[in-house]
């Protein structure tokens, strides 16, 4: 018999069921949710529990409504933030607790403003790019020249660049979809030189006993040597190797998104542009400028990776004749 002060044995600890958030993380990994989505959903579930101070299995529609209403009325969150919180809570009940939530009709919804994207002119794009240099210029040029999202650009691997076909393969984009987009001719020589430089870095890492990158899904288990192969390396690796303090292993991740975000913000300031411009604004400009050049909107939809054509249609607002193709009467005077 175990005395009162004796610690719980390892076997007894193993018999304890995992905590709720650990169950949720495991469930999301089985369904191949992104790491960032997993972290965000768990944060919302934690906030929901702390708000109600009860276990979710003992709560239901009324408590969910109260939390969502609090977010809209007291915290004044945006509609997208409120919907994100709702998605996290619904996931918890459906896949972790195993219960479908009923009517949520009484919840006060945060208003979703109808905002149009900020788009730079070609001259403004050039001004901003001129303030960037080296790798940061190359990454920003890909955002504009290929219509990539920020993380799609940073997660590019060497084999995703097809110089002969002038294409980029975007793997596991938004919604878990792959797509192909254009590789600008003007960037091919620069990317070739860049590839030679990072290949030299990779070869040095291999010589030092490292040179491996993280692979997604079950690839690392199926192909144990793939992570050291050149084709799987990041196009934009970090400058310094990370080190696992527990195992002592070293490797390189891709460049952190904050590095390019800060560089673009500083470049916009130096260029004297007063518009609210960020990394994603280059993608907006990509779609808008293609439309202005007369390209078919469905082609642009495929290049952007939009599921709904209406998402692509929003870029027609910046065309010279307006979204409906109507000219101002003043222009005829």
Topology:
Blueprint: H1 10-15, H2 20-30, H3 35-52, H4 61-73, H5 79-97, H6 122-130, H7 134-146, H8 150-154, E1 161-162, E2 167-170, E3 179-182, H9 188-207, H10 219-222, E4 242-243, E5 250-251, H11 257-271, H12 279-292, H13 297-304, H14 309-313
Antiparallel strand pairs: 1-2, 2-3, 4-5
Helix pairs in contact: 2-3, 3-5, 4-5, 6-11, 7-12
Explain this structure to me?
- With 333 residues, this protein is mostly helical.
- It folds into 2 domains: 17-97, DNA polymerase, domain 1; 122-317, Orthogonal Bundle (hpI Integrase, Chain A), CATH 1.10.443.10.
- The protein is built from 14 helices and 5 strands.
- The protein has helices at 10-15, 20-30, 35-52, 61-73, 79-97, 122-130, 134-146, 150-154, 188-207, 219-222, 257-271, 279-292, 297-304, 309-313; strands at 161-162, 167-170, 179-182, 242-243, 250-251.
- The strands form 2 sheets. The chain has a 3-stranded antiparallel sheet with strand order 1-2-3. The protein has a two-stranded antiparallel ribbon with strand order 4-5.
- Helix 2 packs antiparallel against helix 3 and helix 3 crosses helix 5.
- The longest helix is centred in the middle third of the chain and has 20 residues, at 188-207.
- The radius of gyration is 25 Å and the shape is globular.
- The N and C termini lie far apart (98 Å).
- The mean pLDDT is 84.
Q: For this structure, what is the CATH homologous superfamily of the largest domain?
A: Intergrase catalytic core
H/E series: HHHHHHHHEEEHHEEHHHH
CATH topology of the largest domain: hpI Integrase, Chain A
Strand order of the largest sheet: 1-2-3
H/I helix tally: 14
